[in-house]
Amino acid sequence: MDTTQAPQIIEHLHQSLNLTPFDTKWIPGTAKFCLIGQLPRATGILQVYQLNKTELKKTFEIEKQAGFKCGTFGASPSNGQHLALGDFDGNLMIMDLEKEKVSYQTKAHQGIVNCVDGIGGLGICSGAPELVT
Fold it and tell me: What are the φ/ψ torsions at residue 32 (nearest 5 degrees)?
């Protein structure tokens, strides 16, 4: 393979972490992203970072009883501020990032929620927002 035609990874900023990250998601229409993971004491951690020219600024953090494994904005309303999260205890929750609180939670599985995806939100598709785990 000709390396001049290969994709390149360019590091803009880096950040040391005290957690195990399992997923990251850009917040639609913003220069912010979510870091989804687990702390060493096996609690879930969601951190929101603002990307500036020369720094990463943590703007929000929430810790929950079980580690977070995955997330999606796929079924979020058009403002893109509702993040669906799956955790190690089988819970599925919707985090309202604008209000910085959980707006909905249910037991989705007996064990870990390994993956979550959604459709119908963000004004992309017609029909009700739907999630799959």
Answer: -120, 155
What's the chain look like in SS3? CCCCCCCCCCCCCCCCCCCEEEEEEECCCCCEEEEEEECCCCCEEEEEEEECCCCEEEEEEEEECCCEEEEECCCCCCCCCEEEEEECCCEEEEEECCCCEEEEEEECCCCCCCCCEEECCCCCCCCCCEEEC
Kindly report the CA angle at 90 between 86 and 92, in degrees rounded to 5? 40
pLDDT value of residue 129: 81
**Percent of the chain residues topping a pLDDT of 90:** 65
